[in-house]
Amino acid sequence: MLLLDVDLPGLNGLGVLRRLAHDGVLQHTRVIMLTVQSAESEILEALELGACDHVAKPFSLPVLLQRIRHTLQV
Q1: What's the whole-number mean pLDDT along residues 6-33?
Q2: In degrees, to the nearest 5, what angle opens at C-alpha 53 toward C-alphas 50 and 59?
Q3: Helix, coil or strand: residue 32
Q4: Is the pTM of this model over 0.85?
Q5: 8: closest CA among 31, 30, 36?
Q6: Residue 54 in contact with residue 46, Cβ under 8 Å?
Q7: E-strand spans in the chain?
């Protein structure tokens, strides 16, 4: 399981996700995207690229931990 922020210093998290999908990493790794943005288009793009969830910042730590637990159980 990987937590990946959309806004990485010097990188675009969606580009990283796209590369992970291209390289086949997402076949055995689940990704939860984190972002300050919560635009519908960005959420849809992340999910279409292979992210299993999308969490907008700021987020509640207990909610994030529950989403991580759920992702690991699936």
Answers
A1: 94
A2: 145
A3: strand
A4: yes
A5: 36
A6: yes
A7: 2-5, 7-8, 11-12, 31-35, 53-56
